[in-house]
From TrEMBL:
Gene: BnaC09g11780D
Family: Belongs to the TOP6A family.
Cited InterPro entries: Meiotic_Spo11 (IPR013048), Spo11/TopoVI_A (IPR002815), Spo11/TopoVI_A_N (IPR013049), Spo11/TopoVI_A_sf (IPR036078), TOPRIM_Topo6A/Spo11 (IPR034136), WH-like_DNA-bd_sf (IPR036388)
Organism: Brassica napus
Biological-process GO terms, alphabetical: meiotic DNA double-strand break formation; meiotic DNA double-strand break processing; reciprocal meiotic recombination
Alphabetical list of PROSITE patterns matching this protein: TOPO_IIB
Protein name: Meiotic recombination protein SPO11-2
Assigned EC number: 5.6.2.2
Length: 380
């Protein structure tokens, strides 16, 4: 079958990425893919057994080391994997792609936005034989992104967000009064999953730092203690592993306030470092779209040189899951040497430390700890 000119978005690039498109263009890409499928079905020798998708495995990941900027990121090269209709293991995945594409087309026609959770329940009602879990829907959405080379947001899917922001930041959405994020209480202000809304929100700040906090409880403590009054900063948390909406919000802040250092406060364990690296470099699983939201994040704590602040009895043995994450991180091409040294120290000691271990010095100690690290420039 001859390649249609309008199908160029499927190939012809060494670097794979997902475009952010208006609804009309996203629908056009869906229509082109369906027309090509129909053309194949009508051919004398139908060849629809394979669906070529961008490979989203580590083996297809590449590293862009920042030269003109301080930002490095992970991206995917143009290498394909196949989902086969004739293979019992992948046949359902093949069909799921088309079902999700059909659903996205309807969402775009209706000019609506849905979360992946809402999409799951709709698909569960319409096609219970195909979809039985959120994981299957998430994977199928990423397959559609890999096939059409356009972002989830372009397909009418908005990110479910857990992210919160607090501190010296004012946010003004179109047609609304500004929100003072220092006056939202210890719960913070919820980050929107609507990309258009994030793009059109006016941000103003007199902060000198942006501080990423791994844990909601630590975020709550820092905001409740109004640490941002002593350290002029904005606190952001994704309550664990970062969702795409929080990553987009952080990136928008880094563009709006390029002079502000971004500092990460995470547990001293492989999972904490993995969370930091996702903000800093992006992720392989979402390599087609998340790479563009990579930020120059610095690691302020906890780190190996903080262990002298923590009682021995507060150190916890590494778990099997920690060892798996550590092995994955060490195999990464992008992990910088001083991060490798920290990871090696974790493995060597067989220990992990949580931020809460600093409470042995009192509940107010976190703010003093952060101030000391920042004044001394102890971040990497």
């Amino acid at each position: 079958m001859e390649e249609d000119a309008s199908m160029k978005f499927f190939s012809d690039q060494n670097t794979s990425y997902a475009d952010i498109l208006p609804p009309r263009e996203a629908r056009a890409r869906i229509e082109v893919s369906v027309l090509n499928l129909l053309r194949a079905l009508n051919s004398p020798d139908p060849a629809i057994s394979d669906l070529s998708l961008i490979n989203r495995k580590r083996s297809n990941s590449c590293v862009n080391q920042g030269i003109l900027t301080d930002v490095s990121y992970i991206f995917l090269s143009t290498s394909f994997t196949k989902s086969s209709l004739t293979n019992a293991k992948t046949a359902k995945a093949f069909v799921r792609v088309w079902k999700v594409m059909e659903m996205c087309f309807q969402i775009l026609l209706q000019e609506k936005r849905v979360t992946q959770r809402e999409l799951f329940y709709k698909l569960l009602c319409d096609s219970p034989d195909l979809f039985s879990s959120q994981v299957e829907v998430n994977r199928s959405v990423q397959d559609v992104v890999a096939l059409l080379r356009c972002s989830r947001f372009s397909l009418g899917i908005i990110a479910s967000t857990r992210g919160l922001v607090a501190g010296r930041l004012s946010l003004q959405e179109p047609g609304k009064e500004p929100v003072d994020c220092s006056a939202c209480g210890s719960s913070g202000f919820p980050i929107s999953g609507d990309l258009n809304l994030l793009d059109s929100t006016i941000m103003t700040s007199d902060a000198r730092y942006i501080i990423l906090v791994e844990k909601h409880a630590i975020f709550h403590r820092l905001v409740e203690d109004r640490v941002f009054n002593h350290i002029p900063c904005v606190f952001i948390t994704a309550k664990g592993y970062p969702d795409i909406a929080t990553r987009i919000f952080l990136h928008r802040m880094s563009i709006t306030f390029p002079h502000l250092p971004i500092l990460a406060l995470v547990d001293w364990n492989p999972a904490g470092l993995a969370i930091l690296c996702t903000f800093k470099f992006g992720s392989i699983g979402m390599g087609l779209e998340a790479y563009r939201y990579a930020c120059n994040v610095k690691w302020v704590g906890l780190r190996g040189d903080d262990l002298n602040l923590i009682p021995e009895e507060s150190l916890v043995p590494l778990k099997a899951k920690d060892s798996q994450i550590a092995k994955s991180l060490l195999s990464s091409k992008i992990l910088q040497e001083n991060y490798r040294e920290e990871l090696s120290l974790m493995i060597e000691t067989g220990k992990r430390a949580e931020i809460e271990a600093l409470y042995c010095h009192g509940y107010n100690y976190l703010g003093k700890y952060m101030a000391t690290k920042i004044v001394q420039g102890k971040y990497i």
